UniProtKB/TrEMBL annotation:
Residue ranges that the Swiss-Prot or TrEMBL entry lists as coiled coil: none
GO molecular function: calcium ion binding
Protein name: Latent-transforming growth factor beta-binding 4-like isoform X1
Keyword annotations from UniProtKB, A to Z: Disulfide bond, EGF-like domain, Repeat, Signal
Pfam families (alphabetical): EGF_3 (PF12947)
Superkingdom in the source lineage: Eukaryota
Biological classification of the source: Eukaryota, Metazoa, Cnidaria, Anthozoa, Octocorallia
CDD domains assigned: EGF_CA
Matching Gene3D superfamilies: Laminin
SMART domains found in the cross-reference section: EGF, EGF_CA
Matching PANTHER family: EGF-LIKE DOMAIN-CONTAINING PROTEIN, FIBRILLIN-RELATED
Amino acid sequence: INECLTNPCSPNGICTNTKGSFGCACRTGFSGNGFNCQNINECVVSSPCHTNANCTDTVGSFTCQCKTGYTGDGFACVDINDCLTNPCHANAVCQNTPGSFTCACTVGYSGNGFNCVDINECNGDPCHANAQCTNTVGSFLCQCNSGYSGSGFLCTDIDECANPVLNNCHQNANCLNIPGSYQCQCNVGYTGNGVQCADINECLTGTACHTNANCTNTEGSFECVCREGYVGDGINCADRDECKDNPCHVNAACENRDGSHRCYCKSGFSGNGQSCADINECLTNPCYTDASCTNTIGTFYCTCNDGYRGDGLQCA
């Protein structure tokens, strides 16, 4: 008799007819004695799927499906490189991770990696105090101000005065370096704005020359020279006593005057003081009628004639 024809086994079992009997055995995916078969949850019992797959129990079996970020049949799963589809923002860097990915905005941008906006680095004053900051897309530029040189992060003052090409000061001006620039100042004796300098005629504007000195204007200065008859440096002038040099005739007297002198012949001499000649007083008959006149150098004397007595001016 084939007992299996009456389906004596469990619906999830298999009946095997034997001589004089039969046997029941549970199908694959079920456990029991064949007459009573229970579904086996393979996902719990044996973890048949890949580590990166999800196991789903079914009646008498199971399915394996790779997790998000992985590809395969569930028994073998490999990581999907999500960065190949460019999921991040154009100004972000994609980093593939097992089963996923991360997006990070590049330097100079801020955001979550899916949306990135330019950072205005100039708001943080990254440049030197003497530099200008210019924000650019994803970055910034530092440029030293006029009058400074350097990288923009470090700026040093340019000494324009050390290089004539870098300043336009006049040749008669002094160049004064100041932070970031320079100044031109006309030298003493010149007037102007430093770029143009003209000589000052100190003799017209009033100088320290003495009243008895002559002023001579020179380029950028002036000279004081005491006038004739005076001695000194031109700033101080004193009358020169010409009489000390005996400028007059030996038979003349010298009279010193302010800035000059006068020579005059002594009594008994005539001339201009530089040249003095003896006066022959006898020519004017200064003696008494009965006296003789004798001229001498610078004077004369009278002598009464014989038979007369007196001083020659009076005879008796």
